[in-house]
Specification:
Chain lengths: ~300, ~230
């Protein structure tokens, strides 16, 4: 019983970390119809920034700086690599995103020398408590709570503020939004800023759990968060969050199955099998809109 | 007030507007009529800043606004009600009105009440999603949304498109009412009859060129216009 609770808790926590990355994928897709392949690598860079800053700065300065610097990185990527291609075919923008992804990985390899770097221990998050008799890291308990708070704030922002209204409008129709006087580039930047800030928070939680940061570490959580976003119906924020929790929980359960069954190595393959099955029955994902293309 | 000088617009290799000049005087209703593909929408879209002209200029209140960004043009007081209404389907009626005033930072309540008094139907449907309105109601919302920016010049691209004759009459009544309240109107229409009856001045556009100019009533009785656009 205790084992089951601890597996579920850790699944929810992993799911929450995927959710923070998945929101960035789904919001950017919602507004630009772009799968931002560089997003997982931005997450990786956030991890490295955390490592380098914490070497000289106290954590209470490092953590906000990680978020700020990650946001600046994402903002610059959008302005330099995506904005000039605004009226180009979508495929060109996607290739640009893949290029940025490799660029970030290569720069990370150059800077770190390709060696895995160890994420700092964040006292509050790494400390353990006893939950139902099993020692559990605080990060496991805090992640879902933090995710829920952030998602509520984000939903409020999107549904009840002026910039949120502009985001909803721009995601449907660039041209008419411009006719309303909306500066669409600002709204797009705001989307990248929100997505990357959440990914930066996700990186702090994730790397507290999996402490080795390598240049390609963003790929797998990035891919799974992307799967979560598709699974939930890409473009939908609640969809991405629910998808991320489902994937995190399923994956953790499979990893925790008795070793005699020998299935734990298939946990990643399972994630993708799940995606394929869902997409066969519901091609637009759990909460996806019918028409995914812009008119 | 608004002066278009020798405007030429290309799409790729196609010349959609081939050098047109016209003027819109303050307080008037001006209409451009013409067949499909004549370049009417292109002209309005160029004035609104969505399309950059190849040459020529757009002058508004003495300022050259050619090639400015759409938000700068809205800020100066020119607003376009686009062809096909383009309501934000997922936003409520009230949000659609508010987004029309996106550039403004002052209180919107009086303007919302003003739009609701022009279109009482919208008030009843204030919390409904824009996409669930009927075609006529969507056109009213599109006009109301544009008015929320407090335009000096309201440009309308075929407001009668796809509407029943009775609704078309309502829309034109509202256009006159808005004009009486001080808004200058630049209207393009295929419904030449209604447009010319409403307008002070009309221009006939044929494949990117202005071929006829005159007062609305004058063009209504012009033989060539009758034959080509009024079917009589
Ligand atoms: N985005 C575009 N790309 C290429 N060509 C275009 C584009 N928009 C319009 N055109 C062409 O420009 C010409 C003028 O089009 P425009 O839409 O201005 O006509 P219109 O007078 O508004 O016609 P309608 O009454 O059918 O709306 C047409 O030949 C059209 O095919
Ligand atoms: Mg047209």
């Amino acid at each position: 019983m205790e084992y089951i609770i601890s597996v579920l808790l850790s699944g929810i926590s992993v799911g929450g970390q995927y959710a923070l990355i998945a929101i960035g994928y789904t919001m950017v897709y919602g507004i630009l119809r772009l799968i931002n392949f560089a997003h997982g690598d931005v997450f990786m860079v956030a991890g490295l920034i955390g490592i380098y800053l914490s070497a000289t700065l106290p954590l209470y300065i490092t953590i906000p700086l990680v978020i700020i610097m990650t946001v600046i990185l994402a903002f610059v990527i959008e302005r330099v690599a995506y904005k000039p291609l605004r009226s180009a075919p979508r495929m060109s923008v996607m290739i640009s995103a893949i290029g940025v992804s490799y660029l970030l990985q290569n720069v990370a390899t150059y800077v770190t020398g390709g060696q895995p770097m160890t994420y700092p221990t964040i006292p509050g998050l790494s400390a353990t408590v006893n939950i139902a008799g099993t020692p559990t890291k605080w990060v496991v308990i805090l992640t879902p709570i933090l995710v829920i708070i952030l998602v509520i704030l984000l939903t409020q922002l999107i549904n009840h503020t002026k910039v949120g209204m502009a985001m909803r409008a721009v995601s449907k129709d660039f041209e008419t939004s411009q006719l309303m006087g909306i500066k669409i580039n600002r709204v797009i930047s705001a989307t990248f800023i929100i997505g990357s800030a959440l990914a930066a928070i996700g990186s702090i939680l994730y790397f507290t759990n999996y402490t080795a940061v390598t240049p390609t570490i963003g790929a797998l959580p990035g891919l799974k968060a992307f799967v979560a976003a598709v699974f939930g119906g890409i473009g939908s924020i609640p969809g991405a969050v629910i998808g991320a929790f489902i994937i995190g929980i399923c994956e953790t359960i499979i990893k925790a199955l008795p070793s005699a069954w020998d299935v734990s190595v298939f946990s990643d393959a399972f994630t993708f099998a799940l995606l394929i099955i869902i997409l066969v029955f519901k091609p637009t994902g759990l909460f996806g809109e019918k028409a995914t293309d812009k008119v | 007030m608004l002066k278009i000088n020798d405007l030429k617009v290309n799409y790729g290799g196609i010349e959609a507007v081939k050098g047109i000049s016209f003027e819109v005087n303050e307080g008037s209703i001006v209409t451009l009529i013409g067949a499909n593909g004549a370049g009417k929408s292109t002209t309005l879209r160029t004035i609104a800043g969505l399309v950059k002209p190849r040459s020529g200029s757009v002058e508004f209140l003495g300022e050259d606004i050619t090639g400015m960004a759409p938000n700068d043009i809205v800020a100066r007081g020119i607003t376009l009600v686009p062809e096909g209404r383009k309501i934000f389907a997922d936003l409520t009626v009230l949000e659609n009105l508010k987004i029309g005033a996106y550039m403004r930072k002052d209180n919107l309540n009086d303007d919302i009440e003003w739009v609701y008094s022009l279109f009482p139907r919208l008030k009843e449907r204030s919390w409904q999603a824009g996409g669930t309105l009927s075609g006529g109601e969507q056109q009213m919302l599109a006009v109301g949304r544009a008015l929320m920016s407090r335009p000096k010049v309201l440009m309308m691209d075929e407001p009668s498109l796809g509407l029943a004759p009775l609704i078309v009459r309502d829309i034109f009544t509202i256009i006159k009412e808005i004009n009486k309240q001080g808004v200058t109107v630049l209207l393009i229409e295929q419904n030449a009859n209604m447009a010319l009856k409403t307008a002070d001045t009309g221009y006939v556009l044929e494949t990117g060129r202005i071929t006829l100019t005159g007062a609305g009533e004058e063009l209504l009785s012009n033989e060539a216009v009758k034959a080509a656009y009024l079917g009589t």
